[in-house]
């Protein structure tokens, strides 16, 4: 894996080769990663792995024709062959009137913000093993736990660089750490399983493994002896670990490509009251130590903190250059990509702002409902917004969390859900997408 400056220069050099070979424009992406991990089960070491790899991807343009190729061989001969192959493919490609690099005037200039996403660490396997064991030991120590799927700990470092033929070259480096535990409670057909995990950019921010293990165990034991429930229309509360999936459906529906293809249930929602008043959804690429923080997007464009939804009103789409051209708008600085293919769009650190009601008070206001802690399957139609998913969680009866429930189905339409959802005040920044507990006042709930 190259250091950022070397990665940036490597990407720029292959762009220069492509221009010399006859490309009208080009960009290149370098991605390198070093990762290691340890897994344990029942107190014994189960797996140790370490890997290091790097790839470079080249996208070339000949007029409105484009092609992308990638290689894990970064030698001079391989780079020359990569350029030849890309140019030959572009010559045979169909024309795409929306193809092209991002607008030059929107390219990021200046020094990147200090995002503090690299702590420089590279822990020894023994330290990872101790962390994995501590997480599993804490989980197995909780009464009611009968078996373990294991504990794990990992560490990684990555370098990402991009260079374009119209004046951008930049690179970033980030570290990442994670720890998890998964255990089983009960016996035979009554067994239940659950898990807990945490990840962070800095090792010092990673949650204690004992806390992760205890949370995994308590979640698992809490699921024992689920009851059947009568079907009906009732309030559904989404625990933060599943509430983020609703934001995922929202982001997919406002992506420029979905809007350009007219395949989104939010096609006509721009500027409308999509959510209830008071709802705000933020996108923040500059959060220090954020899991999705970035100084520039994957086309080299400037990024900015923004409100995708303000007081319930949808403010705009997330668009990379190709879909932006199709929609007659400027790209929004949300391009994301790997080493192969063209960029898509996606948020940075996305979160729905907390509401003014505590979760406990929200629960107390529910006479009969469900708290969902796990979602199963897909069951979401991105064109119509129809929503139907398998779920598990807990009954809410007379304002209290009661018996666990499993094998239920919750259904509604995402537009209706968005229009009525109520956020609690328990937002915590733990992922790339974060949400407080969310309540949808009316959903159809049925036993599977």
3D architecture notes:
The structure is a single chain. The chain is α+β, with helices and mostly antiparallel strands and 448 residues long. It has 2 domains: 4-221, PmbA/TldD superfamily (PmbA/TldD fold, 2-Layer Sandwich); 226-448, no CATH class. The protein has helices at 4-21, 76-92, 125-140, 209-222, 240-253, 256-260, 321-327, 359-364, 414-420; strands spanning 25-41, 44-62, 65-71, 145-164, 169-185, 192-200, 232-238, 281-284, 306-310, 313-314, 335-336, 344-345, 349-352, 368-376, 386-397, 400-413, 422-423, 433-434, 438-447. The strands form 4 sheets. It has a 6-stranded antiparallel sheet. A 5-stranded mixed barrel has the order 7-14-15-16-19. Strands 10-9-8-13-18 form a 5-stranded mixed sheet, with helices on one face. β9 (306-310) and β10 (313-314) form a beta hairpin. α1 crosses α2 (76-92) and α3 (125-140) runs parallel beside α4.
Brief characterization of the structure:
By secondary structure, the chain is α+β, with helices and mostly antiparallel strands. The chain is built from 9 helices and 19 strands.
């Amino acid at each position: 894996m190259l250091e950022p400056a070397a990665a940036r220069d490597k990407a720029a050099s292959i762009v220069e080769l492509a221009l010399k070979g006859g490309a009208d424009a080009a960009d290149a992406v370098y991605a390198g990663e070093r990762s290691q991990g340890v897994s344990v089960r029942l107190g014994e070491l189960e797996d140790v792995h370490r890997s290091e790899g790097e790839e470079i991807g080249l996208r070339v343009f000949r007029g409105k024709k484009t092609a992308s190729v990638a290689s894990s061989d970064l030698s001079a001969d391989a780079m020359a062959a990569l350029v030849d192959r890309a140019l030959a493919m572009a010559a045979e490609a169909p024309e795409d009137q929306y193809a092209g690099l991002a607008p030059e005037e929107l390219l990021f200039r200046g020094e990147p913000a200090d995002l503090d996403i690299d702590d420089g660490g590279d822990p020894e396997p023994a330290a990872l093993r101790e962390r994995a064991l501590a997480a599993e030991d804490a989980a197995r120590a909780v009464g009611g736990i009968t078996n373990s799927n294991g504990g794990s700990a990992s560490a990684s470092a990555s370098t990402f660089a991009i260079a374009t033929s119209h004046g951008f070259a930049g690179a970033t480096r980030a570290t990442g750490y994670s720890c998890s535990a998964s255990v089983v409670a009960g016996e035979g057909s009554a067994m239940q399983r659950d898990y807990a995990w945490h990840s962070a950019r800095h090792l010092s921010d990673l949650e204690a493994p004992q806390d992760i293990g205890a949370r995994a165990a308590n979640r698992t034991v809490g699921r024992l002896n689920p009851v059947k429930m009568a079907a009906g229309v009732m309030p559904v509360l989404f625990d933060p670990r599943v509430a983020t999936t609703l934001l995922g459906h929202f982001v997919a529906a406002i992506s420029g490509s979905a809007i350009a293809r007219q395949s989104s249930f939010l096609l006509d929602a721009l500027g409308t009251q999509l959510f209830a008043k008071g709802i705000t959804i933020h996108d923040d690429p500059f959060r220090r130590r954020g899991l999705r923080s970035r100084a520039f997007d994957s086309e080299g464009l400037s990024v900015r903190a923004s409100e995708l939804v303000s007081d319930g009103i949808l403010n705009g789409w997330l668009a990379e250059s190709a879909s932006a051209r199709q929609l007659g708008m400027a790209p929004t600085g949300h391009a994301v990509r790997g080493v192969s293919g063209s960029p898509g769009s996606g948020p940075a650190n996305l979160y729905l702002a907390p509401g003014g009601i505590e979760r406990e008070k929200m629960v107390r206001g529910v006479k009969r409902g469900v708290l969902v802690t796990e979602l199963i399957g897909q069951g979401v139609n991105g064109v119509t917004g129809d929503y139907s998913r398998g779920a598990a969680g807990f009954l809410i009866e007379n304002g209290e969390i009661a018996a666990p429930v499993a094998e239920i189905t919750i259904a509604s339409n995402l537009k209706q859900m968005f229009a009525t959802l109520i956020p609690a005040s328990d937002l915590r920044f733990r992922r790339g997408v974060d949400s407080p507990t969310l309540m949808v006042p009316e959903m159809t709930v049925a036993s599977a």
